[in-house]
TrEMBL record:
CC annotations in GO: cytosol; exocyst; membrane
Protein name: Exocyst complex component
Function: Component of the exocyst complex involved in the docking of exocytic vesicles with fusion sites on the plasma membrane during regulated or polarized secretion. Involved in polarized cell growth and organ morphogenesis. During cytokinesis, involved in cell plate initiation, cell plate maturation and formation of new primary cell wall.
Predominant place of localization: cytoplasm
Gene source species: Trapa natans
Protein's GO biological process: acceptance of pollen; Golgi to plasma membrane transport; intracellular protein transport; pollen germination; pollen tube growth; vesicle tethering involved in exocytosis
Compartment annotation: Cytoplasm, Cytosol
Amino acid sequence: MNSASKIRRKVVPVSAADGVDSADKQEQLLLSSAICNNEDVGPFIRKAFASGKPDRLLLHLRNFARSKESEIEEVCKAHYQDFILAVDDLRSLLSDVDSLKSSLHRSNSTVQSVAFPLLNSLDGFLEARNISVNINLALRSVHSCIKLLELCSRANLHLSEKKFYMALKCVNAIEGGFLDKVPSLTMKKMLETKIPEVRSFIERKMGKEFGDWLVDIRMVSRNIGQLAIGQASAARQRDEDLRSKQRHAEEQSRLSLRDCVYALREEEDDDVLGEAGGSVENGVLGFDLTPLYRAYHIHQTLGLEDRFKQYYFENRKLQLTSDFQVSSMTPFLESHQTFFAQIAGFFIVEDGIMRTSGGLISKLDVENLWETAVSKMCSVLEDQFSRMQTASHLLLIKDYVSLLGVTLRRYGYPVDTLLDVLSKHRDKYHELLLFDCGKHIAEALAADKYEQLVMKKEYEYSMNVLSFQLQTSDFIPAFPYVAPFSSTVPDCCRIVRSFIEDSVSFMSYGGQIDFYDVVKQYLDRLLSEVLNGALLKIINTSLHGVPQARLVAANMAVFKRACDFFFLHAAQLSGIPPRMVERSRRQFPLKKAQDAAENMLSGLLKKQADSFMILIENVNWMADEPTQSGNDYVNEVIMYLESLVSNAQQILPLPVLKRVLQEVLCHISEKIVVTLYGDSVKRFNVNAIMGLDVDIRLLESFADNQGSLFSDEEASQLKSSLSEVKQMINLLLSNHPENFLNPVIRERSYNALDHRKVVMISEKFRDTSERLFSTFGTRGSKQNPRKKSLDILIKRLKDAN
């Protein structure tokens, strides 16, 4: 402390230095700030040497050092007393350490004197423990030999009882736990020889058992497939029954016959297919898979898992390949169920094994086998379908294949490729079906006796009328009931309905959900081509007489109602709401046959009318006075028309009857006009025309009398059928016939007349004063104004032509 006080010196502050200019002060302040902030002073050094004034930098540094010496001195003054106290504490601590050292020495001497007898006892204990260890080792060796002999005895017992897995467990226990620890060399050699023999024996036994299982599973697979497909068929039938009930309920509701409510009832599917997806205790579909699992488990225990997997896969693949063989001795129609059931059973078994065997066969291997099977089945179907020429055969096979698809889809197998093959042969099936239906329709038409169908019982009415919605009233008629159609109608309806059901059956469950358009397309072809063509052939070749033609025309009207039922039935079977079909009305597909039937009926009626129109030759065309009651021919014609209406209205619909009457009346009108300009009439006078006017009025009166059958508008349309002869008579009786030349009048009053006919008929018109052998004295008489106007009309029409 004295030395410190001696070296203390007074520090003069930098600010007191004399002769330092303001620049030096500024530089010194910057240097001091940099050093206090631990910044780099390199720039200051470089600047000093660059300016050639390092002495000034050194002076600044010294001045900074002097300013810090005073701070150091203040710190030392502040901590001087604490340092003295710390030195005193160290001296007192040194004396305590010396006393502790003495105490430890005394304690050590005491412990050594006490522990010496204990060390002698410990040596005796260690010797006794070594003896005990040797005895225990001997006992363990004896116990190990006893356990080894027990395991060998147990292994022999398991082998004799064919409990091979337990025997392997014993062998593995011997090999893993005792083989390296056997104290007897002879026993060890014996074990090393017998253990491989035991394993080889177990492997042979399990190989034989697995081979027997392969034979059994192939025999049972067919039954498994048939049972599974049968259950799918039963489930499909239940669905069809429920849909049928639902359609019936919808139909009853739509027709508002009675209140019917059907609820779809869900049934538990107790089929064995559910068991396949369940536990394996009962095996796939009740078949025991225990031999397979035991063989696989034992091979796993033997360390031969991969080899057994390969052996299993190769054998099952060979079995599948042999299942693909199609016998050429048996028709495929008879053997297809066995063929597909065998394949279905194979893959049902494989699915169960894949899911429950713990890796015996992988999903990829099963998928590869399935792809091979699908390819082969598609090839077989293509080949067999190309040979078949019967629609029902294709339908049978298609139904079974679709059931196969439904069955295997439940197990996760993709069947779209298989269903595509069925869809590819859709056109061929329908062509064959159209051909078959064409033959049946031709047979039904040929068997028709062209008599009204008589139904004596209600079930006959239900079968022939209600089942096709041919009724015109909701009331059940009295029996016996004479239908307004022949047996052809219900027979053809049954054929068409069968076609619809077969078509829907082929299109259903084939991978295509919305197939109504396809069914409708082929139904259109059946009606417009097959049925229409067959009806046209019958109409053009086999109809003789008005009764037959009338009945066929009535049949066509009934067929029109039946066609609505056909498309509605097709929609219902296809799952399309009836309201959608009712909104999309279509043209009557049998329109050509209907027109042909009506034309045939009209033609026959015209021929019969011609037989009465022959009487027009008896008309006195130069009568002295007009007839008041009509000519004979028109009375005969009217009686014929009245009998025609009386008979036809019982079976012909009123629109058809109206069209036929129009045709007949139009023909009568044409016949009268033809007679007027024909060669049979050389001349006529106004009295004859007035008689024709009476005839036409009688015919118009007949049309008016049909008001009980037709509306006023329809009766007016009947009268308009006589417009040609009516306008011709009006023209001849007109006071100014030349008005025909006026386009407005001609369009209003004579639009049905032909110019040439008007000229030819007008030239034959003679005044009542004219006679065939008139005297020269009458030639100078004044000409009739009507005749004069008519001559002007004739001249102008000839000039125009």
